[in-house]
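Recap for those who missed Tuesday's class. We walked through two folding examples back to back. For each one, the amino acid string is listed first and its predicted structure tokens come directly after. Nothing is annotated here on purpose, so try labeling regions yourself before you check the end of the notes.
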Amino acid sequence: MKSITILAASLVTAFWGIAPAWAQSAFSLTNYTYTPTKLTIGTLQAEETASRYTLQGPNAKLFSLDKTNQLSIKADAARSDKPWYDIVVAGGTKRDTFRVVNDTFIRNQVIAHRGAWKQSGTSENSITSLQNAVKLGCMGSEFDVHMSADSVLFVNHDGTIQGLAIEKTPAAELAKIKLSNGEAFPTLAAYLQEGMKQTKTRLILEIKTSTLGKERSLALTERVVNMVHHLKAQAWVDYIAFDYDVCKKVKSLSPEAAVTYLTGDKSPAQLAEDHLNGLDYHLSIVKKNEAWIREAQQLKLTTNVWTVNSKDDLSWLLGQHVDFITTNEPELLLTMVRQ
């Protein structure tokens, strides 16, 4: 009976993108990537401390866990051409699986806003726009997540699609929608699963602010983080949000996650005090508060600026040495950073 229940839940997750309540991770790592020259992956963390943790599963012999609970990969495994490994950790009554990824992610400052859609004429926030961003060689592909009336997660920028308010519409109705490029309206599960087929482009997940109130925004946040953990997508996903409480909620649920704030009303010092990872502000905010770039860099916060499309503005930001630029013109920015 238990196996039937698990199978049924897995099918529901695959079809609707619903993460079961039990999907939240029992453990977490401080990092989920390795390289052939960086064999220490991260430190195992758990809400409930166990006297002893063990590595299990078919890949257990490829890893080690020391007395300080630092997980490392063995050199031969790290040099393999495998893009990632799943490793099972057990402690006390808890058991969890992590996916640790060979860090071949691109580092070129270019974040494709809602994917790469403009030049190709495809739909924003579509699976094709994500695939295009990967093919171009973008460092990241940004996308937006809303929650349906019955708590299914969908990828779309606006709160409405084809006249339907996503938050007030059940998933069965939303699933009937086709995007302008003919694709199905993507669930978060489908989008993440597509993104996890590669290890070049990071997935920049924006948690949209609910129009129905703070409580629903925080419920959306918890469901999003649970979905990322359920699919073992931690190595791929960074989070952004306009709601400061949402940013802090993500950090409480997933302390190792990179979380940056979008609204632009917080100084770098405030972001650092609240343990966020960086700022992700509109170009107008950054130009008005130019000193924030240097302040953020001194505080070891990341800097991202959106949505920047003109060559002059892109050139100015490159001269400021910001970490990332979110743009509707990734092709143009890629040409500029490669010069």
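Example two. Treat it independently of the first, because the proteins are unrelated.
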Amino acid sequence: MPKATILIVDDMPENIDLIKTVFINESYSFITAHNGHEAIKCVEKHAPDLVLLDVVMPEMDGFEVCSRLKNKKETMLIPVVMVTGLDDHKSRLKGIEAGVDDFISKPINIIELKARVASLLRIKRYTDQLEYAERIIFSLALTVEAKDHYTQGHCNRLANYSQLLAKRIGLSEEDINSVRRGGILHDIGKLAIQDEILLKPGPLTPEEYEVIKKHPEEGEKICKPLKTLESVLPVIRYHQERFDGSGYPDGLKGEDIPVTARIVSLADSFDALTTVRPYRDAFTKREALRIMDSEADAGRWDKHLYKEFKNLLEMDNIDFLVNSEVFETRGVN
């Protein structure tokens, strides 16, 4: 197992030396910073496994450093232990609001410090393992797309369409994240479908179509063991359901279909229509919407959601946004 890297942040060198001495018999490696700005740069450069952070420092105090780290996706999961002589309730509350994971009071209790650091590093290792497993799942999802050059870029576009629509209708950040991730993972169940069916250049037989219809359930099975993907499972399982109950695998109808799945379903259908297939040319945006208009009139789509999706497509920069690398919608209106 590789050594854990700990960043010690303190403006007093003697305090840094003291902490290093505490861990002299442990197999950790250390990097140091003497102020808040140095700390931020060290984290960005070295990605430590844990930060031991002093509170009172010139220019940028420990609360601000912690808040900045916890508000960035790349660093938010790094445990931060605040080493402080401030023992009042107000300071502790401020630290908790900034995202501090634990506190150690000065003068330092050596046994307590070692135990808390070891505990947080165990959690960090577990978190890293989950992230690694999740990255593998996302990579597998993209291999489905890579099998068929006709679907190149589909997952990326779908993730972007979906999160833009989710933000437009006012969903929470958690739900926006779910539709973005669901857009990438929605078809991962096709890994379980034979290539001769999945890549067939002509229309499918009824028997082959029944096999294809299993992919939402297969996708759910693949992703279910990962707790971090729990909120994405409804998107994966229900993205082929339709508002009138004509979809699959469960024949859900109306509001029984989770809104995150309804969003991805709309985007998936539109992108499929406007993409070349081996058995037909791509429809233009106007032609695709004409088809979907008639489907909405027949009750296949949630009319309110479909109206918002059509309005989304009128944005001047929609093509640029949708074809960009998958991005977060923060700041995009």
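Answers for example two:
The domain at 4-128 is CATH 3.40.50.2300 (Rossmann fold).
The radius of gyration is 25 Å.
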